[in-house]
Amino acid sequence: MGVPLSFGILRPVHAPWIRVTRSMNPFSLSRKLPFSVSAIGSSGWSHITRASLHSNSVEQSEIIFIGTGTSEGIPRVSCLTNPIKTCPVCSKATELGSKNRRLNTSLLVRFFNPSGKWNILIDAGKFFYHSALRWFPAYGIRTIDAVVITHSHADAIGGLDDLRDWTNNVQPSIPIYTAERDFEVMKKTHYYLVDKSGITPGAAVSTLQFNIIQEEPFTVRELEFTPLPVWHGRGYRSLGFRFGNICYISDVSDIPDETYPLLNNCEILILDALRPDRSSSTHFGLPRALDEVRKIRPKRTLFTGMMHLMDHEKVTEDLMKLNETEGLDIQLSYDGLRVPVTL
């Protein structure tokens, strides 16, 4: 048995519990998105309207932001129960349809090609099931055809156990694509999913197929993913991914020089922006994220991974001014946002 590497190469693994694949809520926009890659020019960003019920009639590829928040999520319980100080963003996040309500950062790539329609998930964090419960029925999403992992923190892999609902009731298994260092973590945190030999017969656990990826392009359901190696804190390697001309970097404190060439000619950049004032030791803050946008020069940018200091309406209003002053098309993403793309 072997674990598939990039370009179809198999690395032998003497572990019988690794299975190998061969290839691998009712909120939506009430009008056409203003930033379809194929539809708008450089000044095409406009304020995104509040969502309403959408009849699912998707005919092209799209990306859906399953979650756009930090590991804690927003609102924070500590803020809502604080008798001394009111947190404006967490208070707003309790309102129905608020764009300040954010669960763990995750992206769904709905990829249409001649062989079918594929749902490729990037990360399944500890709040994934809650996000799926809200957005999967609303957008007519049933299957999960693969999960690509950026890193092995709880907000990226904590929902692997919840994939049992799919593998028990929808489909026989789900391929997981992960770097070896993160697979080693999963062997400890999710040992019963990696090695099922100790599971009581008949127990309902996720059936996952772990595929080890390198920092080289690999293919999932005929869609090529190029890893974008970044640092997520000192000495901690995380991966962004490029698919088509979309570059997704959700957890980053620094971008190595060798990664920048992989970001050339980026149509949509989805980038980490934790807080409005400064960076942390593990995440870009808004000032650093803006500097990176100026350096990378994508056609348009959506920030993700925002904490409770980032008020959606206020920050978006400030960002839109950059289109007038610097020609930068930038907005904050939000949970449930869907963007038509060409892949």
From TrEMBL:
SUPFAM superfamilies: Metallo-hydrolase/oxidoreductase (SSF56281). Gene3D superfamilies: Ribonuclease Z/Hydroxyacylglutathione hydrolase-like. It holds the Pfam family Lactamase_B_2. Residues 103-306 form the Metallo-beta-lactamase domain. InterPro entries: Metallo-B-lactamas, RibonucZ/Hydroxyglut_hydro. Signal peptide: none annotated. This is Metallo-hydrolase/oxidoreductase superfamily protein. It comes from Perilla frutescens var. hirtella.
